[in-house]
Amino acid sequence: MRKIRQSQKLRHVRYDVRGPILVEAQRLEAEGHRILKLNIGNPAPFGFEAPEAILADVMHHLPESQGYSDSQGIYSARTAVAQYYQARGLRETDVEDVFIGNGVSELISMVLQAFVDDGNEILIPAPDYPLWTGAVTLSGGTPVHYRCDEDNGWMPDLEDIESKITSNTHALVIINPNNPTGAVYSRQMVEALVDIARRHQLVVFADEIYEKILFDDAVHHHAATAAGHDVLCLTFSGLSKAYRVCGYRAGWVMISGPKEIAEEFLEGLTLIANMRMCANVPAQHAIQTALGGYQSINELIVPGGRFYEQSMLAHKLLNDIPGVTSVKPQGALYCFPRLDPEVYAIEDDEQFVIELLRSKKILVTHGSGFNWPEPDHFRLVTLPDVDVLEEAIGRIAEFLATRR
Ligand code: PLP
């Protein structure tokens, strides 16, 4: 019989955070091993709970959420998102500028399907959140990675971006705060990035899902503010991280800038939104409550709060391991340590992660899974309680000691 193959479109698409490393972890679990999974930024399994008002609101609205909603999203959710940005100085944001999706993930795919033509080049940071690279590839585009500079706190290398722009470059992706590096960009950096887009007539895709997870004196600056009236900017965010409801699948994209030049693209985006009917309706009801209510996230990101303490502890313990350096995270939920090649000489970082998993029953994600070009990094999720983190990083240190 003829073999059923995957489509050619998928040939170069990768999403390693849930790739072969997870399959191997599941195989070990089936054998009866307990695996500590530090590969996904999913707060709920680590004892984080959503604000109660969100749960109550979703439950309250279940009976009336049985039908499809408007494809762009329910009115109250879109209004809440529009007002959220208005209150941040983006005064002209309108309810029509907001699309609600099943998480930022769905919206990234939808936007790229509507935007990218075969061979279009899209600038994406390295390292990146790998959905961006995968979704650009799947939509027929060419991801072009610009380097973020570890020696400069993982800031984007502006010269590298400029040098990679061609007549075929159409958009610049900015992930701020960054996954996997934890970097948060200064106002000057955001303005410099947007200015590149301005000069080269690129659209900005700003993934700001970690905008409320900031440590110490880090401040988040919206790319849309820098983009103003003359750069088309699509800002992505949602409830998964700051409100700890990854499973609800609630996110949005907000369109700002010269929308009049983007009418055709927006028609395309509407078509794609229509084709998938709507986002999960009960979760859409949570958006207004989340954005308007008490921001309990602010308790987690200050000294004494779990996000803060765990991030700082992970950063310290990783740096205590010989040959390991990790830039201090300014936000988000991750550390992205470097393993000095002179000490560890790793050739295949995915294999390294699998060996760590088999030996110590801890699952982290290899740096090349984030399109980092050298096999010398991995990403650790900083969500476990401090005791568990200490134990986990201790086991990683033991494993590394066998590799020096
Ligand atoms: N963007 C970034 C940078 C992320 O880290 C993630 C999830 O980890 C997403 C988007 C996807 O989020 P959502 O749960 O809203 O689909």
UniProtKB/TrEMBL annotation:
- InterPro entries the record matches: Ala_Aminotransferase, Aminotransferase_I/II_large, PyrdxlP-dep_Trfase, PyrdxlP-dep_Trfase_major, PyrdxlP-dep_Trfase_small
According to UniProt, the name of this protein is alanine transaminase
Q: Has UniProt tagged this entry with the keyword Coiled coil?
A: no
Q: Which organism is it from?
A: Nocardioides bizhenqiangii
Top-level class of the enzyme under EC nomenclature: transferase
What Gene3D superfamilies does UniProt report for this protein, alphabetically?
Aspartate Aminotransferase, domain 1, Type I PLP-dependent aspartate aminotransferase-like (Major domain)
EC nos: 2.6.1.2
Q: Which domain of life is it from?
A: Bacteria
**A GO MF label:** transaminase activity
- Kindly indicate whether the keyword Transferase belongs to this entry: yes
